[in-house]
Amino acid sequence: MKFFVPPWFNSTLNYAKNISSSKPNILKIAINLSWIFFDKALRIIIGLFIGVWIARYLGPGQLGQLNYSISFIALVTTIATLGLNSVVVRRLIVKPEAATITIGSAFFLQIIGSLLAWCVAILAAHIIRPNDQISLLLITILGISLIFKPSETVRYWFESRVQSKYFVIAEGGAFLISALLKCALILTSAPLIFFVLLVVLEAAVSAGVLIYFYTSTTGPLKSWHYQKETANDLLSNCWPIILSGLCVSINMNADKIILREYVSLEELGVYAVASSLVVTWYFLPMAFGGSIAPRLTELYIKNKELYFTYARLAYLFFSLGSATLALAICILSKPIIKFLYGDAYANAGQVLSIMIWGVVFVSIVSLRGRLLIIETNQKALLILVFWGTTTNIFLIFCLTPYYGLLGAAYSFSISWALNAFVFPLFLPSTRHHGIMALGIKR
Q1: Is 7 exposed, middle or buried (0-12, 13-18, 19+ CB in 10 A)?
Q2: What is the pLDDT of residues 23-65, one digit of tens each?
Q3: 285, burial (CB in 10 Å: exposed 0-12, middle 13-18, buried 19+)
Q4: DSSP 427
Q5: Using an 8 Å Cβ cutoff, are 260 and 268 in contact?
Q6: Which positions ≥6 away from 177 have C-beta within 8 Å?
Q7: d(CA 231, CA 189)
Q8: What is the CA radius of gyration of the chain?
Q9: What is the DSSP letter of 182?
Q10: Is the pLDDT assigned to residue 292 strictly greater than 80?
Q11: In the chain, what is the greatest distance between 2 CA atoms, to the nearest angstrom?
Q12: Which of 47, 238, 242, 352 could make an SS bond with 87 (beta carbons 3.0 to 4.6 A apart)?
């Protein structure tokens, strides 16, 4: 007995087979992207629901306290990771035969970095607000999550192999467990401290599952080896990224820390709501950038002309896509805030309408950062990020005392805009990136 098969089905099947055989890289990137987007879409939907529920449950005051403490940890995360992500991925692609030495050396370095970052966060909190014992306690507990950061070396391995599904399952599973527990905490009227402890639990679960996947698919951890020469080489290549990453962290989190000196915790909670909605969309450039980076790295080594063609198209795609998103959210900012968070956070609507444009500029800067690392131009990356951070801090101190939350929002968007389009034009080694970002053919 034969089943009727429509002609279009065979054509579609043959087309899919041709793509998979003739363009394996494109198919692999597409599959990799689908895993990342599934993870991020799930996080956006569930995270938005849980985030709104937590904001309504805690209220602006406690939410401001929580975000203030989280900002300290986010500020030092780059110290914990040592900016090794792109450097390790590039080394794993270029020198696959030395993978166990590369991962082992990176793992050891990140253990030292994590402990150092934890100490720096506690010390900074004590210096800035010596009498704020609640913030100091929360920051100390949140800092425990940094201890699990070294497990990200496993993520670098899977990223270099374009196998996102493993770290998506690990991190996504930990996120879902945390989300369910947050719901339970709200239903049982739990205090703020339990929500802080969940951050640590999520980091621990994610690290454990990541290591399990590595040992199951690749080999035991005992195959990792620390090599002083490799560690020194990694550090020599990543120190500009460490400093630039620290500048980015300051750029992303200093606004909340500085705002705390000028506004109440309630107002800080309102600002945090708008900021969190903006940060939600950062996954778009990071997802695309992480998936196309291995392919662009190969092109840069083998065919620079084709590399720059793809880079120019990437800039165009990142710009137009993020601008479309920003325009839609800007128009609907006030209804979005009122619908999701209620009248207690009504002032966040205007803040969101300003900050959302930062997504466009962050997308461009994020892509440029990956491209500069591929081009081994980390020093220029550091200079550009430093200029952007300095501009943001300067604007925050100038505008916040007079305009409050809106001053911080304007500082954020303006500084990132200058970083995306203006600053790269001043350096000969990055001028071509500034030109491509502006949509001009190189």
Answers
A1: exposed
A2: 555 555 666 666 666 767 777 788 888 888 999 999 888 988 8
A3: buried
A4: S
A5: yes
A6: 201, 202, 205
A7: 47
A8: 22
A9: H
A10: no
A11: 82
A12: 238
